[in-house]
Backbone:
């Protein structure tokens, strides 16, 4: 009887051990499958990131190659043409390039510790062109400038802007440049509809960017002068479609702009250029290895193109503080060797396709 009881206990112990081993083995197998799946996903994500970096280098190379061909940036250039996707096995890379200088840079309003009154006037006229409140320009400026007073009003910013419906949480303005135009929704008078109307015409590049007259829209060009309209700027659009303007001075020959006096032209010239100092690239990396589920990652890349030290010295004539130095001698081949420094300034990854 005792022997049978001992055999029963031993059998039960063995069964418990078998069950325990089975449970542990099952858990280890499940954990291994999860680890393998996680590793596969990480590998796929890393591959997509590598694809994005490759697309970034392709965009930079394209801008550098185009720069060797001419001193201007226009819709006829290489970078402005549709770029077919690059296929790498089951992966593909798509690149879209946009000239940020074709838009008004809201960070131009406040540069080197001073308000650019000419840029402010242009932005106010742009708002008027779009049937928006021109006072938005003052609020955008106050968002950036380092003082605590409303521009030209003298009121305390923290008091005046506290009343805005979309006020910043601390009721104080950041007093720093914009990082994204989406931040405009923190500004008094700017809601989703206003931002949607402004989006095609503005950018928030973190450095001074003159407006490229070869790519700017007629609406933005019309904002250069008081009472201008997009229809009046169609003549300029027609001219640049045939051949890019090689100097800002070419604009003053147009009937609509010929009425500007010397002082007005001198004020506008630093805000204008015939080439671009900033490009935005939208890169889409696609993984089609899994026929049931296509994976995509997106990135926006800000690319800066500026004159090298040699060219800057050749064009500056001793004045390194004039933002229009890079454009002053574009028509003089002896002062420009077409050398530009093209580099990535910032990259932002997106889980979804951003507005572009």
Residues:
């Amino acid at each position: 009887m005792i022997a049978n009881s001992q055999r029963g206990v031993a059998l039960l112990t063995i069964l418990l051990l078998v069950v325990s081993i089975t449970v542990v083995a099952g858990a280890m197998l499940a954990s291994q499958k999860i680890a393998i799946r996680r590793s596969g996903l990480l590998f796929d994500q890393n591959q997509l990131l590598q694809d994005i970096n490759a697309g970034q280098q392709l965009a930079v190379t394209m801008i550098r190659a185009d720069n060797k061909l001419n001193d201007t940036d226009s819709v006829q250039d290489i970078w402005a043409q549709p770029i077919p996707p690059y296929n790498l096995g089951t992966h593909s890379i798509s690149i879209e390039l946009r000239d940020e200088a074709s838009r008004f840079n809201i960070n131009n309003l406040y540069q080197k510790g001073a308000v650019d009154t000419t840029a402010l006037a242009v932005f106010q006229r742009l708002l008027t062109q779009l049937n928006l409140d021109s006072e938005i320009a003052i609020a955008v400026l106050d968002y950036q400038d380092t003082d605590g007073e409303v521009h030209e009003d003298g009121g305390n910013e923290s008091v005046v802007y506290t009343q805005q419906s979309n006020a910043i949480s601390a009721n104080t303005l950041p007093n720093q440049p914009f990082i994204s135009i989406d931040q405009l929704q923190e500004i008094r008078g700017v809601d989703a509809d206003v931002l949607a109307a402004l989006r095609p015409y503005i950018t928030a590049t973190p450095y001074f960017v003159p407006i490229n007259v070869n790519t700017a829209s007629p609406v933005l060009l019309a904002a250069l002068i008081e009472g201008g309209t997009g229809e009046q700027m169609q003549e300029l659009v027609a001219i640049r479609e045939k051949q890019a303007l090689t100097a800002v001075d070419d604009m003053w020959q147009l009937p609509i702009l010929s009425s500007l006096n010397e002082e007005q032209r001198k004020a506008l010239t630093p805000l204008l250029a015939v080439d671009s100092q900033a490009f935005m690239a939208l890169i889409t990396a696609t993984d089609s290895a899994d026929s049931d589920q296509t994976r995509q990652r997106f990135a926006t890349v800000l690319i800066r193109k500026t004159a090298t030290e040699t060219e800057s010295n050749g064009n500056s004539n001793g004045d390194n503080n004039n933002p229009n130095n890079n454009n002053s001698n574009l028509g003089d081949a002896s002062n420009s060797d077409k050398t530009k420094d093209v580099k990535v300034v910032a990259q932002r990854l997106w889980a979804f396709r951003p507005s572009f």
Notes: The chain has three domains: 49-100+276-308+338-355, 105-201, 216-271. Confidence is low (pLDDT under 50) at residues 314-337. The first helix runs from residue 2 to 67.
